[in-house]
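Protein of interest.
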Amino acid sequence: QVQLVESGGGLVQAGGSLRLSCAASGRTNVDFAMAWFRQAPEKERKFVAAISWGGSSTDYADSVKGRFTISRDNAKKTLHLQMNSLKSEDTAVYYCAVQTYYSGRYYVPLLENEYDIWGQGTQVTVSS
């Protein structure tokens, strides 16, 4: 079974940066599509960014385009999210997820139900 553990969250001032990491362990093909979602207090979990099988394609929510960058290091079985120019509205618990089946080299899954393994989340708080 695959396990995902997020790290890198914390408290940062508006305009600052954070880099989240998601380490995968267990029986896993690290080339599978992976993503970041976030859930703000009293709101539904929402898509942030995703990367396709093998890392050929990426996609981002409009609210983070140009500020966040998703990347992966397959050798280290790690997914990253570089977050720059952070805003107070980025405050949320950030979750990483993996799709443990092949859906295409360039396909980028955007929906929660396309991912079947989730991490526990890491809190990001942006103070204004």
Q: What stands out?
A: The chain has a mean pLDDT of 94. The longest strand covers residues 18-26.
